[in-house]
Model the fold of this input.
Amino acid sequence: MRILVIEDSERLRRSLGELFCSAGFAVDLSGDGEEGWWYAEQNDYDVIVLDLMLPGLDGFSLLQRLRAAGKKNHVILLTARDGVNDRVKGLQSGADDYLVKPFATEELVARVQALCRRSYGVKQSSIKVGPLFIDLTSRKATLADHELPLKPREFRVLEYLALRQNEVVPREEIERHLYNEEAELNSNVINSAMSILRKHLEQGGHAGLLQTHRGHGYLLSAC
Done:
């Protein structure tokens, strides 16, 4: 999943970037409201983590601009303000969630994961595609009760296809949602991940779960 973190504290911004990368997210970072707005205009994010006290364009104004422009990204607000009025204002402005600083990093990750699942109509922390079971919290996948030895990049692709199961997902969409570094894309990472996923599914006797629709994209389905 791809997220945008807009936080003016450089130390916290870097820390959150490392936190979310280690949790399996593709992350873009911004330190002010105007730059954050530019990122949100240019890219499609599953979740935006938004600080309220920002230079240039404050978090409330940025959130209102997002909603006025028809942007449907899930937004979680981060703020040192813990008053009820501020929480109500944030939610009424279009925020989906609210977390007061200081916060537990585990809670922030869990809340962002829940918002990502909500983007695809998934409420549980796991997804089942026939004999394939994907645990979104532990980031492990099992096929007929045998764990698949997937690296983080491969799991990210499988996770996204599972969230979009029974849909043909274009390669370009997978790239936009899972990778934000040109070096990763130039390394032919999508082809490599697909090849490894197919190999594991074939070895488990369920090659048909993952299909390639040439010129259109990839389909993960138990049908």
The chain has two domains: 2-119, 126-220. The mean pLDDT is 90.
